[in-house]
Design a protein that fits this description.
This is DNA-binding response regulator. Keywords: DNA-binding, Phosphoprotein, Transcription, Transcription regulation. It comes from Streptomyces lacrimifluminis. One of its GO terms (molecular function) is DNA binding. The chain contains 11 helices and 5 strands; from the N terminus they run E-H-E-H-E-H-E-H-E-H-H-H-H-H-H-H. By secondary structure, the chain is α/β, with parallel strands linked by helices. Strands 2-1-3-4-5 form a 5-stranded parallel β-sheet, with helices on both faces.
């Protein structure tokens, strides 16, 4: 199936460059362009987009607010948001993950990285830029509504619904590992891992694997490591 991509950025030149790149691929197409977050939400609904490349900073409704609107809309539950940021280290990125984004990518990424990010987000298989995202979570996630030991008590209580194996899998997901990698580590089949991931997502109310990573850190199941 063709991946339907929506471009949301206030810079027309950048949108044009992304359009040429995306439309050059046989398995994806650009179905719309938005210059602000409000327009992105409207077009995501009207054009039945699968993936939104969303700039964080835009005039009016910014990318963060637009991501919250998309993730809160049951009619857009299938839409995956990839945040685009000028800088790899940006506190708004973690806020975006909390709001429902599937991950992020720096605007300076190579073309192949961008195209792969779209495919990964559309498939919901893995967190984008796992190493960098984990670094951001380690730096910023403990700031906010959590206890001194880094735990969000509400998130921690929700983990009680998970089985022991589901917790193990969640720890591996938070490490940025794919289903195949987790299967090898835990000596089970990839299909079994996928089942555990899906059950954990359902029990924790997570949209995708990116949300599982955030929950793993906020609950204290996984602790940020300071390099």
């Amino acid at each position: 199936m063709t991946i339907r991509v929506l471009l949301a950025d206030d810079q027309a030149l950048l949108r044009s460059a992304f359009r040429v790149l995306v439309d050059s691929e046989a398995d994806m197409e650009v179905v719309g362009e938005a210059s602000d977050g409000a327009e992105a939400v409207r077009l995501a609904r009207e054009q039945r987009a699968d993936v939104v490349l969303m700039d964080i900073r835009m005039p009016g409704t910014d990318g963060l607010a637009a991501t919250r609107l998309i993730s809160a809309d049951p009619g857009l539950a299938h839409v995956r948001v990839v945040m685009l940021t000028t800088f790899e280290v940006d506190e708004y990125v973690v806020q975006s993950l909390r709001a429902g984004a599937s991950g992020f990518l720096g605007k300076g990424a190579e073309p192949d990285e961008l195209l792969n990010a779209i495919r990964v987000a559309a498939g919901g298989e893995a967190l984008l830029s796992p190493a960098a995202t984990k670094g951001l979570i380690a730096q910023f996630l403990a700031q906010g509504d959590v206890l001194d030991d880094g735990r969000d008590p509400a998130r921690a209580e929700r983990l009680d619904a998970l089985t022991g194996r589901e917790r193990e899998v969640l720890v591996q997901v938070a490490g940025g590992h794919s289903n195949d990698e987790i299967a090898e580590r835990l000596e089970v089949s990839p299909l079994t891992v996928k089942t555990h991931v899906n059950r954990a997502m359902a029990k924790l109310g997570a949209r995708d694997r990116a949300q599982l990573v955030v929950i793993a850190y906020e609950s204290g199941l996984v602790r940020p490591r300071v390099e």
